[in-house]
């Protein structure tokens, strides 16, 4: 899904770069207010994991291939603000060092694969969790549904980019059908990888999973008089 140089016209790329810079600035402020000592190394690990897994492509129908986007995975593990920052770093390194995605389209790619999947997918995650029991299994299931939805949502955003400033010459309907159809299949792989990873972290360190904060056990705090008072772990 990485957009190369020249695929979207210059004015659209400029607007995308400005919007992405604004989103990153807001994310830095939000992340600074919520990030604790435990999440800092986890955010680094999430970025490194997604960077590595994005290098691995899995086959999709019709001779195409796909790879993990990682937005929902990052959002569930460290929250959407920190997750979107981690993904922005990944996309910047990929564009600058590995020529994976164009430099002129970097802002569009950050919005497309980072913010769209982190916030759009995480919104789906929260909606699904509202109708499921408050269990670890439900967190994994909601992560899978959200991961698939985030990928499909990103394909819709790509189609919007193309409608506004696409230079490929292909009809918009053809591009839309190809992008959405293929990414509905790629989303299955995204859902599987996301569910497996969230499940693994939940089984070992559930206290680190941002999307499962409500599952942390309540603490019993003893008052000076010895009477118990209810509290919740942070």
How would you characterize this protein structure?
This protein is mainly alpha-helical and 234 residues long. The protein has one domain: Arp2/3 complex 21 kDa subunit ARPC3 (Orthogonal Bundle). Helix content is 67%, strand content 6%. The protein contains seven helices and four strands. The chain has helices spanning 10-34, 39-54, 71-78, 80-97, 106-131, 136-165, 172-204, and strands at 58-59, 65-66, 218-222, 228-232. The strands form two sheets. Strands 1-2 form a two-stranded antiparallel ribbon. Strands 3-4 form a two-stranded antiparallel sheet. A hairpin with a 5-residue loop joins strand 3 (218-222) and strand 4. The radius of gyration is 19 Å and the shape is globular. The two termini are 37 Å apart. The model is unreliable at 228-234 (pLDDT under 50). It is a multi-pass membrane protein. Keywords: Cell membrane, Membrane, Transmembrane, Transmembrane helix, Transport.
């Amino acid at each position: 899904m990485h957009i190369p140089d020249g695929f979207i016209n210059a004015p659209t790329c400029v607007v995308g770069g400005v919007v992405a810079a604004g989103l990153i600035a807001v994310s830095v402020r939000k992340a600074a207010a919520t990030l604790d000592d435990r999440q800092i190394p986890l955010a680094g690990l999430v970025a490194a994991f997604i960077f590595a897994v994005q290098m691995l492509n899995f086959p999709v129908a019709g001779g195409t291939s796909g790879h993990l986007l990682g937005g929902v995975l990052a959002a569930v593990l460290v929250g959407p603000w920190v997750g979107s920052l981690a993904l922005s770093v990944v996309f910047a390194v990929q564009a600058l060092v590995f020529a994976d995605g164009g430099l002129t389209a970097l802002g569009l790619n950050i919005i497309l694969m980072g913010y769209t999947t982190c916030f759009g997918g995480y919104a789906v995650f929260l909606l699904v969790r509202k109708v499921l029991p408050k269990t670890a299994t439900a967190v994994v299931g909601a992560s899978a549904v959200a991961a698939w939805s985030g990928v499909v949502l990103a394909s819709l955003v790509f189609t919007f980019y193309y409608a506004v400033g696409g230079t490929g010459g292909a009809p918009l309907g053809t591009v839309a059908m190809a992008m959405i159809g293929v990414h509905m299949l790629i989303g299955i792989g995204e859902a599987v990888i996301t569910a497996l990873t969230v499940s693994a972290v939940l089984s070992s360190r559930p206290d680190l999973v941002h999307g499962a904060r409500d599952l942390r056990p309540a603490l019993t705090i003893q008052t000076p008089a010895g009477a118990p008072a209810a509290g919740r772990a942070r």
